[in-house]
Write the structure tokens for this entry.
Amino acid sequence: MQYVTMAIFGLVIGLLARFFYPGAQHMGWIATILLGVGGSFVGGIIGGLINKPTDGQLVHPAGWIMSIVGALVLIFVFHSVLHLV
């Protein structure tokens, strides 16, 4: 059940990030879910750099806002790499 919850959370975060990023984002449902889950991970890393995680944690848990920020960073990096190729 944890994976279903993670997929739903990833889908919502991915959809919000695609909504806030300017321009059309052409990706399917699975790519949107992966974007949201990856954005949560990147948001946790960014949050860990801003505020040190408690002892015993490797990364800082990302909330909704940091997850969306992380997903926006992933979209930006993805488009930057595509334009270089």
User: Anything to note?
Assistant: The chain has one domain: 2-84.
